[in-house]
Specification:
There is one protein chain. This protein is of the alpha/beta class and 350 residues long. Helices cover 39% and strands 13% of the residues. It has 12 helices and 11 strands. Helix 3 links the parallel strand 4 and strand 5. The longest helix is centred in the first third of the chain and has 21 residues. The radius of gyration is 20 Å and the shape is globular. It starts with 5 loop residues before the first strand and ends in a 28-residue tail after the last helix.
């Protein structure tokens, strides 16, 4: 007897993680639906239920929660949004969704958080029980959203919390467009610090695997908080160099061992709105940044398929193939390039 498909509401379904997760779920015994304020402009549109709307709209959220078995909450206002939009989306919107999910008897609510909740740590690897200290409105909002998740977990709702490292793969642009654009156009790539720091990334397909594990494994194994990241990664300089090598122009990653002047300049550009790099990026780019995934390996059986280099090269191949359709666009989501602002002027010397 065929088991009925589980209906999965993916908030932020039109985003980078959202579309990759929907494609992943369509391969299994799931019936995905997308709720997003943005247009769902993918070929999969005819295969799923698409709801265009804002997670801050209480009446809409109540309506779309009818008949939902699982929620995967990927929607978020990212760091380039205004502090007000970040708070009302990432905190208030999360509470609105959890309230409705609890009221409608949703079985599980998988919340996609961020390792930004750890701030700028003083040790590595970082474990799930380490101190939370968000940097900026986004990091702080992610911590507040997690606290609301714990509140509803205490009320009996199964709420796995996933803290992924920065993830890349098909459809990912955002800040990574800087690396891919400079590699493609034949420029050396500047890096804060020496580049000898270890900076863990994550392939979006591995993240989708972790999310699905939280949907199908026994409740007692998934009703917890998990770091998710690549298992294999080297230094930031070596991993990024793989993209420049793939571009074939013979260019190199150029590190600035004296970090302070570069960070001062980026702080000034950030304050003036002339740079796409926000505080958490430029304050951590020259430092080690990696989490322990042992808990996810042990409890979920999580086993990432892609290394940092694999993930970056897979994303770069997608970038090269699709570059013509976003070459003259920019925005503040992961699906579009972020305006390079004053940083673009550095191309003249690199």
């Amino acid at each position: 007897m065929t088991q009925a498909k589980k209906k999965v509401l993916v908030t932020g379904g039109a985003g980078f993680l959202g579309i990759n997760l929907i494609r992943h779920l369509l391969k299994g015994n799931y019936e995905p639906a997308s709720l997003d304020i943005a247009e769902f402009d993918y070929p999969e549109r005819d295969r799923i239920e698409v709801i265009k709307g804002d997670i801050r709209n209480r009446s809409l959220v109540e309506r779309v929660m009818e008949g939902v078995d699982f929620v995967v909450h990927t929607a978020a206002a990212l760091p380039l949004y205004s502090p007000r939009d970040i708070y009302t989306t990432d905190v208030v919107g999360t509470r609105t969704l959890l309230e409705a999910a609890h009221r409608h008897g949703v079985e599980r609510f998988v919340h996609i958080s961020s390792t930004a909740v750890y701030g700028i740590p003083d040790h590595h690897p970082i474990h799930e029980d380490d101190r939370l200290e968000g940097v900026g409105p986004y990091g702080q909002a992610k911590i507040q959203a997690e606290m609301i998740c714990l509140e509803y977990r205490a009320k009996g709702l199964v709420v796995p919390i996933i803290r992924p490292k920065s993830f890349v793969g098909p459809e990912r642009l955002g800040v990574f467009d800087l690396l891919y654009d400079w590699a493609y156009t034949g420029h050396n790539f500047p890096m804060i610090g020496s580049g000898n720091n270890r900076y863990q990334l994550l392939d979006v397909e591995d993240l989708c695997d972790a999310i699905e594990l939280c949907l199908r494994l026994p409740e007692e194994r998934v009703n917890d908080t998990f770091n998710i990241g690549a298992k294999e990664f080297t230094t930031m300089k070596e991993d990024f160099q793989a993209v420049l090598d793939a571009a074939g122009h013979g260019k190199r990653v150029i590190g600035f061992p004296v970090e302070a002047p570069a960070i001062w300049a980026l702080r000034a550009l950030d304050a003036l709105g002339l740079s796409p790099l926000y505080k958490w990026v430029y304050e951590t780019a020259g430092k080690d940044s990696f989490v322990s995934i042992e808990k996810a390996e042990r409890q979920l059986g999580f086993s990432p398929k892609y290394s940092n280099k694999d993930a970056l090269l897979r994303n770069y191949a997608w970038y090269v193939e699709n570059r013509p359709r976003f070459e003259n666009s920019s925005g503040v989501s992961h699906r579009v390039p972020w305006s390079q602002g004053a940083i673009a002027l550095l191309k003249k010397v690199f």
